[in-house]
## 1
Amino acid sequence: MPTVHVPAGFSPALANEPPDRVVGSRLAATGARFWFLLAVGSLVLAGLLSLTLVVGRLPFMGWLFTDPLFFKRALVVHVDLAMVVWFQAGAATFLALALGAAIPRVGKVVAGALAFAGVIGLLAGAVMPGAQPVLANYVPVIDHPVFIGGLVCWFAGTGVFFAGALAAPAACPRILPDDALVALRASALANLVALATFIAAWRTTLPGLPAIGYYELLAWGGGHVLQVANVAMMLGLWLMLLHRWSGHTVISPAAIRWLLAALVLPQGVLPLLALAGTSRPAYTETATQLMRWTIFPVVLIVLGLGLRHVGRHWAQRAAAGNWRLVGLAGSATLTVLGFILGSLIRGSSTLVPGHYHCAIGAVTLALMTAAYDFCAATSAGAPPAMRWRRVQLLCFGCGQAVFGLGFALAGAYGLGRKQYGAEQHVRSVGEYLGLGVMGLGGLVAVAGGLLFLAVMLRCIGTWRHRSPQPV
């Protein structure tokens, strides 16, 4: 029987598998590539838009930009690409890698077509004449049928894929460790709960409300659940990276199921509350309290178990894989910093974006770190430019932390959020200092993001010359 080369960190049991499993693994890698392309493509656009947003926040540059709607349109597209498309496509990438061969082909094609059409709709809607940005929390929109249609197509496509991933049997032998796969499937379930909440809210939210009130209520519950889905994905990536660093599973399947059940299952009440009416206080307050009290206990438990795992296996570590710890440490630090800043929020100031930029930066850094392993898994031979990965992870992680702290400092002095250019009123030295720190951190984070994209695009460029490796 022919042997199969398996990339470092993946299950060596596949080396002895028959050719039909090898073909299935190649198909899984091909499907995962599609979602990875969507993820990286969305991050390219979101990264470029984030540079515009950073410049628009700098106090000495405000005179150049007198139309705040320009930045608000850019902010809408940036947030939806960076917080919806990037994260959901990232989760789909690793689920497709692990389960893609077991998901029915029709479902994968339908999901992919809808998702791709959704991204096109988001971009096209942003340039429609007369389109008005609505800066609702979690899922901001541009109030135009083309943009809204793009969002609907995207969520429908990912919903089809995540449903297929939940129904698909796990491959044997496993491509991902059991604890990581449980967490990724929990992320898929949370994404479906978010979709159900969006649909329920759409049915009960009064259409006669002002645009900001309508879309705020529509996205509030589902948007909170999306953050839970992102956290579950991040935990899965932490566990996967720790396994690849040490060669050992971090948490038993039973324990991780209980932990992820405590994180995800309570969110199941939100579709029911949305059906009862989004104007009721129970809908908005329950979503807030669930995010406040269900995320941090599970994350801190997994983080503690991860630290114990590193301590146990430090002496036996492979030096070549230590770059993974850079990304893991940065993601964990941003997570804890996000928890601290979140606990300090008392009103609507830039402390709020300081908190959530640390939180989403933690998920992004975990996904970036895992992306290097993905490139190694789906390319023949060593992917190009991997020597930059440690520098890139440090650059993005440190920049994002400084960015969030700058926002928090300005917010501590009362600076309002969602204001750009000439619309922004800076009154104190503390606000100037906070925005200056924010601008510096933002530029460093953008530099790290652009370096990541350069490496990823080089890896993607090799795909047409190399067949995907069985994984």
## 2
Amino acid sequence: MNIRNKITTLFTLLTGVIILMLSVFIYHFSKRSIDREFFHRLTVRGGIAAQAHYEEGILGPDVYNEIRQKHLQRLPDEKEYFFDKIPDSLFLTSHHITLPPDFEEQLNAGKTVQFIRGLTYYSFIPYKYSGKRYIVMMSARNDYGEEGLRDMRQNLVLGIILAVIIVFVVGMLFSAEIVNPISNIIQRVKRISVTNLDMRLPEQPSKGEISDLTQTFNDMLDRLETSFETQRNFVNKLSHELRTPLTAILGEAELALSKERDPQEYRAALSVIAREADQLHHLTTSLLELAQAGNSVKEEFMGSIRLDELILSVKKLVDFTDPGNHIRINFESLPEDIEYITIYGNQNLLKLAITNVVQNACKYSNNGKVTISLHASESQCIVVVEDRGIGIPEKELRYIFDPFFRASNTSAYKGYGVGLPLAQKIIRIHRGEIRFTSMEGAGTRAEMRFPIRS
């Protein structure tokens, strides 16, 4: 069952139940009112009949019959009985009258007893005259009341059926008004594929859940389009980066094998092959590290890490790979409590991420001055790497985390454009973030933020 039918069905059932309960309520209290009014009529007639029967000097039977004929409409199957004492149960049973359990107690207390058996209404009325107590029994059928109730039942049933039909039709229209925007979104989304990710859902004129849903889909499509475009660029650049050294290796090998050469020429060819193979090795190693970083780290490889110690180990590693660096470490803003510089993570991965950032700073500043500083806020540890190198063009700053992207002013420097994407991926795994600010020709500032281990 689709959502439109569900809404219509639930709306109709709910409204139908409410109307049914209301109809039962109306019928019940209408019947009580009719019964009460008819019993009142029986009581009044019983009082007049008792007065005519027992007080003959004042109002005789002839006068009572004349009054009843002129002013009181005779009730269907109306009967009246007069008893000098509480009626005998055998007499009443012989007339097929079933008495209520407290019949005698009520009459002894001087109360009128009223009840209904089948279609007949019975009223037993105590009457006092000349110090004696008598009982008047009045019985009749309320044919007019029953006819009115029967008409009411028919009208209520017809009204319920008509109301349910109207509610169902209105519910269908109402649910269509609600569901149609969603159906339109579904139909449009179905037409979006890999070949037309630039399509977007039309914005809704009014604010609400449908507008939020449309915006959410459009945001998702933006991310998908960016992801597909990045992947496409990644594959193109990867193919180019892999093809270049492989072409050089194959070319040198074919050239060397094309004819006999002296040992010096072979050594030159092998030197080119070794250099290109080394470049290919570094490239594939970087790609492997990028892939192995994944999106999460196994818990058994996680632990508490002091960032000041991690920065010192990064400095030691860079000193080994690039002895000519001019890295300066600034720990002047360290908090007294080491908990504020302790994070939870994988030490090897974080060391790799920070090392990539520091090596970039050294490389693109031509081994100029690079400052690594560490400070903390109430909830974050912040590592800042600053250099005074060539900087990054402002328009290209947004692309530095795309794999294989290299800024337009880095052609003179060896690199593959993999280090920063890898660093960003590792930092994100640790629920951190990395930001770059740069000015071309003036230098670059990299800020890495990590949540403090609570």
